[in-house]
Amino acid sequence: MGRAKKVVLAYSGGVDTSVCIPYLKQEWGVEEVITLAADLGQGDELEPIRQKALDSGAAVSLVENMQETFIRDYAFPAIQANALYENRYPLSTSLARPLIAKALVEAAAKYGADAVAHGCTGKGNDQVRFDVSIAALNPDLKVLTPAREWGMSREETIAYGEQFGIPTPVKKSSPYSIDLNLLGRSVEAGPLEDPWTEALEEVYAMTKAIADTPDTPEYLEITFEQGIPVAVNGKTYGPVELFEYLNPIVGGHGIGRLDMVENRLVGIKSREIYEAPAILMLIQAHRDLESLTLAKDVSHYKRGIEETYANLVYDGQWYSPLKTALDAFIQDTQKYVNGTVRVKLFKGTATVVGRKSADSLYTEDLATYGSSDAFDHKAAEGFIYVWGLPTRVWAQKRRG
């Protein structure tokens, strides 16, 4: 089709992205395909993935470790925003997409490519996240989407790849579609497509069943600096280390499972299983610390901002003007979100049982009912009269 001469392809090592390489060259006349695999802590052996791209016909096969950037520049801002899509999902998969899109655009600039490509299908959210993010970062780049356009079934895709030496994948015993990174796992398809069917224990890998969790609680003290988690139980951790340390501990108490029907961006409802132990617990702890350190009106107004923020991230608008504006608001609110939150992990629940901060707005002399009470109770009468005046006038008028 002659759409582009040199293309940077987002590459995972799976069937679809491997077949994209010969397909782009044979069907669309692309002269050179450069693949880019992102290491986001999914635990894959990346050297075989790099080699598979070359064996499938890539001219250059890039593998980039993006774990640190992923946590620092994408996960931490989402924690500061308490971002939960539909008040539940902590965007563990969604947050990776704008980072990969940025890497594609940067690689295209470095290698002089006139297009980028991905292997997303036409039913998912990721196609939107990639296409919109790429357009925001470089609107002049073409975006090629072979898997959205080739119209092949999985069997036909495998057969097409075999013609070009791409080996038939080992038959998967698992019927599930799984996405994994440092923040968590998302699982869909197979038996899960029936929302009435309970997910079997085999679906889970990062969290233990309640029956297998410890019979004694465990306490974690999470220290935040300007809304960012920096230490656990007094020990400082780097961004990647933090999640590598917390995920097995929190998941080991059966915490971090979500089973939900969510509204996809393309209008389809989808049943998803998520495991995201650390980030769910960190958002809970961070929100609690904000209750101690944010003024009432700021805290209440931020709640609405958080929902909008989560929707923007889910909908692929990470690089949009509104998201950038909300970032400025959120960052300003985080200046004094400093302190430590004590979380009790036990039998599938993470419960905040203590919080302290040098920037706390909690004043014991005002809150106490004891002898040190400094609140002027007589002031309440005048306050209530003025506060209730509009309601009183309204009631008098209604009563005629």
Automatic annotation (TrEMBL):
Its main location: cytoplasm. Its EC number is 6.3.4.5. InterPro entries: Arginosuc_syn_C (IPR048268), Arginosuc_syn_N (IPR048267), Arginosuc_synth (IPR001518), Arginosuc_synth_CS (IPR018223), Arginosuc_synth_type_1_subfam (IPR023434), AS_cat/multimer_dom_body (IPR024074), Rossmann-like_a/b/a_fold (IPR014729). Residues 176-394 form the Arginosuccinate synthase C-terminal domain. GO terms for cellular component: cytoplasm. L-aspartate binds at T121, N125, D126. Keywords: Amino-acid biosynthesis, Arginine biosynthesis, ATP-binding, Cytoplasm, Ligase, Nucleotide-binding. It comes from Romeriopsis navalis LEGE 11480. It comes from the Bacteria. Pathway: Amino-acid biosynthesis; L-arginine biosynthesis; L-arginine from L-ornithine and carbamoyl phosphate: step 2/3. GO terms for biological process: argininosuccinate metabolic process; L-arginine biosynthetic process; urea cycle. One of its GO terms (molecular function) is ATP binding. Residues 6-167 form the Arginosuccinate synthase-like N-terminal domain. ATP binds at A10, Y11, S12, G13, G14, V15, D16, T17, S18, A38, G119. This is Argininosuccinate synthase. Coiled coil: none annotated. It is an enzyme of class 6 (ligase). HAMAP family: Arg_succ_synth_type1. Pfam families: Arginosuc_syn_C (PF20979), Arginosuc_synth (PF00764).
